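Fill in residues.
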């Protein structure tokens, strides 16, 4: 990736995403390795890591469900959708189902403001959610495992 970016530091976020996909989360070993390869301190890596909701330092479920409750989604039922998600999955914020299939997070804007309420499951966006649509989507992911 270094050849695609003007400076080494620019490679950090895509490298973190790549490593997370490989390892399942951003482990201490990943942080140390990236800091070393990109001439950064581990603190600099952790500072960037803590900013992005799609990055995690803890293992999470196979499908990470992120429900947006920020203003645009909130006005279209985002908070109620998040409550429904908690009920449906039986877990709360940053928790993982006992079988390891789903994790849940309440998140700020995911860039789908015109189509709220919205959620992101790993790299897939789901918009204009209703409770029925949410249930169908979750059931489809559960059937894939
Ligand atoms: S406010 Fe929900 S996606 Fe932007």
């Amino acid at each position: 990736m270094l050849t695609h970016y003007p400076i080494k530091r620019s490679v950090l976020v895509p490298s973190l995403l790549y490593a997370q996909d490989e390892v399942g989360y951003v482990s201490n070993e990943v942080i140390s390795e990236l800091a070393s390869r990109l001439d950064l301190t581990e603190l600099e890596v952790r500072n960037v890591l803590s900013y992005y909701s799609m990055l995690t330092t803890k293992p999470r479920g196979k499908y990470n469900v992120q429900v947006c409750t920020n203003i645009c989604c909130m006005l279209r039922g985002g908070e109620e959708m998040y409550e429904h998600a908690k009920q449906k999955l039986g877990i709360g914020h940053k928790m993982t189902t006992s079988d390891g299939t789903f994790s849940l997070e309440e998140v700020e804007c995911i860039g789908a403001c015109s189509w709220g309420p919205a959620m992101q499951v790993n790299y897939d966006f789901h918009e204009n959610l209703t409770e029925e649509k949410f249930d169908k989507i979750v059931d489809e992911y559960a059937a894939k495992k």
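The mean pLDDT is 95.
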